[in-house]
Design brief:
This protein is of the alpha/beta class and 363 residues long. It is 41% helix and 24% strand. It has 13 helices and 15 strands. Strands 4-5-6-7-8-9-10-11 form an eight-stranded parallel β-barrel, surrounded by eight helices. It has a four-stranded antiparallel beta sheet with strand order 3-2-1-15, with helices on both faces. The longest helix is centred in the N-terminal third of the chain and has 21 residues.
Length: 363
């Protein structure tokens, strides 16, 4: 099989949100996807990250020469070449997100060359996985909050997540309305995005527990491992403390797990150097007997989550679900709160080029 990578192309697409959005620490009105396509052996692989357009420039100026001309079957060699080429540029942030997009494209390409879904290439541990509805932005009014979360519950989702922390005094009422909208049987998750100090986070956890919240994400900064461990040790019984979405390399996940900082580790393949980085983090979860949950980008994460032994669910994030269904044929669709791969080779995605071009921005 001729698997020499012939070309790498990169593009960026900025999609406006369907309403103003905010969490405990940020506000935004659009999301940018940086998309990589690779060609080899008559097949095209695609991968992407949600990042600034500078990630696209980084791919074109630094990573492209490390990829084109290599054997698409040799993903570890290409991955290490990209890591080595960026040694003096700083690993976290844009560097890892750029590597992520290329690495995902490599895995998609290899799977297509072999004619199998990516989940099968990785080795399936399961056929499907639960998703949790994720949105409930702090910018939403009560009606939209209740409609979105209640809508997911009506569709059969057993877990939903809302953003909190921008106005902690108002969040008690917001959580009570969310609970009323989803009913007593659906699990309620909350995400503070690192908005609070340790003691304020402890007080918030008690308030959240009164509304039946079972998941408290980034109650303090995800860099504050001692603070996360404090919340884990002293927070309400039955409430998981979670973080990890800002992990850009394996050492970050190792340190977080070694510190006993989280009950569930969150991993994002669009940030942690791709499928390769995700599966390394999944191995650490096995070693530390810690559940794993995928952060955002469900069309990518369904495949490694079907393979990762410790995966328990993945995030059905409102923004990314919109974008993936707008720009790709084959994007997953849940049924009864669970999703599965569509059975097509690779990620099972095909870019809807004409639709995507509407949102294309210059790199």
């Amino acid at each position: 099989m001729d698997a020499k990578i012939e070309a790498l192309e990169v593009a960026a697409y900025t999609v406006p949100t369907d309403a103003p959005e905010s969490d405990g620490t940020l506000q935004w009105d659009a999301t940018t996807m940086v998309l990589v396509t690779l060609t080899a052996g008559g097949r095209t692989g695609l991968g992407y990250t949600y990042a600034d357009i500078s990630a696209g420039r980084f791919i074109a100026s630094v990573l492209q020469t490390q990829v084109v001309g290599r054997d698409a079957m040799d993903i570890p060699a290409i991955w290490h070449a990209m890591i080595h080429a960026t040694r003096n540029l700083g690993r976290p942030g844009i560097t890892s997100m750029a590597i992520s997009a290329v690495d995902v494209a490599l895995w998609d390409l290899k799977s297509k060359l072999l004619g199998v879904p990516l989940a099968r290439l990785l080795g399936r541990a399961r056929d499907g996985l639960a998703v949790y509805g994720s949105g409930g932005f702090t910018s939403y009014d009560d009606a939209r909050l209740e409609s979105q979360l209640g809508g997911w519950a009506a569709e059969g989702f057993t877990m939903v997540k809302m953003k909190v922390g921008r106005d902690p005094q108002a969040d008690g009422g917001r959580m009570r309305r969310a609970r009323a909208a989803i009913g007593p049987e659906v699990q309620l998750f909350t995400d503070l995005n690192g908005a609070l100090s340790r003691k304020r986070a402890l007080a918030f956890a008690d308030k959240a527990a009164a509304c039946g919240v079972v998941w408290l994400e980034e109650p303090v900064s995800s860099n504050d491992l001692d603070g996360l461990r404090l919340l884990r040790d002293r927070g309400p019984a039955g409430m998981d403390i979670t973080a990890g979405e800002y992990g850009f390399d394996t050492r970050y996940f190792r340190d977080m797990l070694a510190a006993g900082a989280v009950d569930v580790l969150q991993v994002d393949a669009t940030r942690c150097a791709g499928i390769t980085g995700f599966m390394a983090a999944a191995g650490l979860c096995e070693a530390h007997e810690t559940p794993l949950s995928a952060h955002c980008a469900p069309a990518i994460h369904i495949h490694p989550c079907l393979a990762a032994q410790k995966a328990v669910h993945l995030e059905w994030f409102h923004d990314h679900v919109r974008i993936e269904h707008m720009l790709f044929d084959g994007a997953p669709q849940p049924s009864g709160g669970r999703i599965a791969a569509n059975g097509a080779p690779g990620l099972g995605l095909t870019l809807k080029q004409a639709d995507a071009d509407t949102f294309r921005v210059a790199i």
